[in-house]
Fold these 4 entries.
Entry 1:
Amino acid sequence: MILERIVLTNFRTYEKLDLEFGERANLILGSNASGKTNLAEAVYFLSLARSWRTLEEKNLIQFGKEEASIRAYVREGTLHREILIELTPQAKRVFLNGKPLRRLSELSRLTNVLLFSPEDVRLFEGPPAERRGFLDVSLSKRSNDYLALIGRQATLLKSRNALLKEGARDKALLDVLTDQLIDVEEPIVRYRTMYVASLNAVLPKVLGRLTGKTAPCSLVYRSFVKDDGRFKERAKKAYAESLEGDLMHKSTSVGTHREDFRMKLGDRDVAEFGSQGENRMAALALKLSPYFLIEEEEKKPICVLDDVTSELDVDNAGRLLAYLDELGQSFLTATDLSLQGASVYEVADHNAKRRN
């Protein structure tokens, strides 16, 4: 996929911005707080219609303005698309070639964007929710069925927790909700198991290219029960054993919403025994790995890396830049960066201009 042009209106600090991009690396350079990340955020917003920086979408609208918009021109092979996202404090509307998009879930297939942000350097050291979020977003882009499953799971979990808060006076209803949760969680576990196996097929090569070293590495997925042909039996037992505690804490303590995965370098858990540098490179390798699971060249994702080189030493940064130069379109923000053949944009006073 290639993002050919973007037009921002009242988005963050950009009152009006119209830029055309190169097909390979695009360097977005400027001092801190100049608006670099706001531009990267707009590119990422095209994939999921949500920000990685805020849950309050009204914050994306320039102060004092009533609405904002992102208009993008995207090419996939010989196909050309115009995507328009309009934001108001009350609503969000998405259009494809002038027609309303029925489902936001379709957006990631129209503009698939991979993101690495400064917060991601602590992906393996942070809470399990961040790692689950990576799995859910990545899988939802690949499968509408998975997206529907986690949506259904969230609805059932909310209902079960509400019943627990009431003391679960209706035991029959609690049992029904638990059984329905288990029915949804069984395919979720299978999707996650298969996806982690797919990542493990490419992860060692990606990490090796980024670090310049050959070392075994793998993700270890921790399902809340084994999927060994007796999933429902094991899951019912897990829910039954946790019921007393769930009633006490008024919350569901087991299930796919509590799962996690870890990364091993050799036989060591990178979060527990890895250096800061190893954790950074492991997280970066993981976030880039989905790129290689897409076989059709024209469908390869766009990569957005926000301030990534500031977290890397000179050697690792050099290898990353060389690696990205072999891939498709990418966007990198930095205060200062050089890459031969890259398109360069200078950001200052909340405006961006193309240098070359």
Note: The chain has a mean pLDDT of 93.
Entry 2:
Amino acid sequence: MPSKKRKVHLDGHLHPDFQGVASVLESILERQDGGAAFAVYHQGECVVDLWGGSLDRKGTPWREDTMAPSFSTTKGVASTLVHIMADRDLIDYDARVAEYWPEFGQHGKEDITVRQVLTHQSGLYHIRQMVDDASRMRDWEYMVDAIERAEPTHEPGTRTGYHGLTYGYLVGEILQRVTGEKFPDLVQKEIAQPLGLDGMFIGAPDSEIHRAAELLWSRSSQLLQSRTPATSTPKWLENLGDRSAEWLTRAISRLGFDLDIKSILEALVPRGISGFEFDSPETLRAAIPAANGLFTARSLARMYGALAVGGELDGVRLLSKATIDRASERQERADSLAVLPFDMRWRLGYHGTPTSRGVPRRGFGHFGFGGSGAWADPDRGLAVALVVNCGTGTPFGDLRIVRLGGAALAAAATRDGDPINLIPWDLEQSFSRMCSLFERGGAPSWR
């Protein structure tokens, strides 16, 4: 992270009522490398569409059409596709996955339901045991076969373990089975084209890859690796064995963090991940629906903007209100947690949305490693989206989306003449502490 502030020029437009959002975005970009774009929809209107900073290490200015690889923010788009198909009665949340994908129903997976997949309770997060190298993630058929052969790491439904990298293949193959279409094509046909989105790809065509920002990594991650990294994962973490993971878990617990390092490695650190480049053309062309979406902020905000106002925007019906209500309802949590040490208030494929002003009661969306995030608040008709190309933080990003979301909520409340009435959530404190742990020297400057 830069040690001094830098001058930042923001391009785009915003409604005067949301000037406070621009001020927060400026303060963030002044203190970080790279660039970002942030967009807000309120009551069906695009009220913020801003971008600034640089799209690569050469300092090339971020452009209006720049897209950024957005890691787990991708899961929110994949989940929206599931709900579109549920709206058409092609998917039942409580049906067994094997009803749609017969080969899945073996090795203890026969009774896993779609709901368990969407709430990360299927016990299939352990990609480290499923593949011999992270590069396998570019091969859809290989990953589907690996999941078919896998056994759940625990009894499905008894534990919530964040499926950081496998989630996309699970929901993606269900979608492919019920529609007979390829996942990247579904993103375009069902979401991007109907809403007229300028940048939403999960498996990008060659013609669009030139728009991708280069992924940069914060100073702290570079120090961990003693070099400018191709990816965010240091080699020493990839090579950590079970005994070392147990030792590290105990050491971190003495600092007040309840982290199960072994389950984190199983879910997020397959062999070869330290050399896996998420922004390479080869990766961007592949479909990794849990981790490699290529988005503009305005496209994410427009999709969530439709969901925030009952599923229809500018005459385009994306989802029914009834399905949105079901998809965004908080789900019953399992008895214990793995991978992530706190309750994410899971919905069906989405999680709750902490902000610096509290938590919208019915807010839902998904944040991503690296700092991106997008969500909708049906109670206020509000949707926000952030894409960035610099940062690491927790598996759910860092505090930038928390700050910007809070600023957007405050502006919308003032515009509505309706005071903010949000629920407290101890995740915000845990999230801040995890950012400090993962990003020593980095996270404080994003607050």
Note: The chain has a mean pLDDT of 88.
Entry 3:
Amino acid sequence: MVAIQVVNIQGEKVREIEVDVTLIDSCVRKPLLKEALIAYNASQRQGSASTKTRSEVRGGTTKPWRQKGTGRARQGSIRSPQFVGGGRAHGPRPRDFGYSLPRKQRALAKQSAIRVRAQENTLIAVEGLEALNAPKTKTVTGLLSGLGLAGKGVLLVSEVHNSSLYLSARNVQKVDVAERRNLCAGAILRRPNLVFSAESLDALLQEAAK
């Protein structure tokens, strides 16, 4: 059993919830968490690195010197890779590095990542987080300061899409916002602190108890 703190929007402790972490996941699946984190990081890569081939660089196709009689190696074009300013041979091209784990593995990895945060006592629930009806960065920074998480990596989790919460947190460094239904193990492991809204935590525990 672990005790999860429930605080208000000012960061003041309201109550505690005793949770059996085995209901979230029966064990911590370290190999699966590693695979999930690698897949998440791979999907974040832009894959935009690109170099020009010999068909794309500037220059002509006339021979730089005649075929025989110069004592030098024969050459066909100054756009060849061996010339300065020539094309790149086997250089990087735009590509998609992302890949996805099977659906059941993604679900197990998410549950296991949540259990890890619960065991580390870095999982907190906040009452009133869903009630934000206007973007206000000061509200989020005040909450994080009250929790002693200012300047630390935090993932805020809401039960439903909350544009006010997203707009309030998007300018705060090392803070991400996600809906509970869109959570993935990589996003959880990327930030060392997990802050649920009270509604999203209740929904999570109800699903785990089924």
Note: The chain has a mean pLDDT of 93.
Entry 4:
Amino acid sequence: MRLHDLPTPALVVERGVLETNLTEMATLCASHGVKLRPHVKTHKSVPIAARQHALGAVGLCAAKVSEAAVFVEWGFEDALVAFPLTGEKVRELRELPAARIATICDDPAAVGELDAAWSGSPLDVFVKVDVGLGRVGVPWTQVDDVVALARRVAGARRLRFAGLLTHAGHAYGAATPADVARIGLEEGERLVSLADAVRDAGLDVPCVSVGSTPTARHAATVPGVTELRPGVYAFNDANQVALGVVPAARCALTVLTTVVSRPGPGRAYCDAGSKVFSSDRGAHGQARGDHGLVLGGAARLAGLSEEHGWLRFDGDGPRRGDRLRIVPAHACAVVNLADTLWVVDGEDVVDRWPVNARGRTR
């Protein structure tokens, strides 16, 4: 099958670019002596997770229990669910048949609930720290609270203190690449400083885990950081391009779409709308531009309806029937809407991968 044979809209993965992205991150981690635990919420695909594992990943990170369950069912034995769990989610986590399961907490009540509900081998629990995003996590400035929570986890009967964990998601709001670098260094330095405070209190800190594709290459250089959890790096997306993290040529994921209407000057419409791209133009609501980057510069993806992509252009622009490849603004949201990833090598379709964990958001 050739690329032009694919029905549109379709999610297309450039095999060579994907391999470059995966290899580069694995090499970065190895060069700094940092463990790599990729976040699978970006690709949700077992074949990609298997390749990450083959390149040296120590385990995987998932957003939800149901997402982790897919990969555990396929034989992955080390899974971290980096999300606050309560109620039935704790029971579902307990049922995962993996060799090592871990999760996070950011308040004493969560420690009590996890400890009361757990059974069997001790559950590894990270203390989640907020180093600037302003989402879940103990604020990094509250050193005493971080230490107290680590002590509480370590003192629980059925839990084991696994270390400290953070996500510098505020890097997605950075104005320049220099700001991204600064945030990445701060991410590592703030978490390492807190790890030292926990050690000073008499506790071992087995892991100091950071996670953000934009900041990965900066945080990895901070002595004391022991683990990276990037996700988007596998594909990259238009947000990574806008942040200066990678050029467009390093975006492995594109949406193949057909121009179906050109009703007037300067405007046309394609067959991929919000049900393909989602309406997400940036992580954590920090939109950086259009809904996607049209390769070749034929037009801008300026808007979306459910089934239509709104293309705007000066001059000739695309014609009805033309096929475009568009790098999505936010890869993670787009993949979760698809059943299939079509793997290509240039114009040749070489494989078809399922999005195994599509819709696993519980």
Note: The radius of gyration is 21 Å.
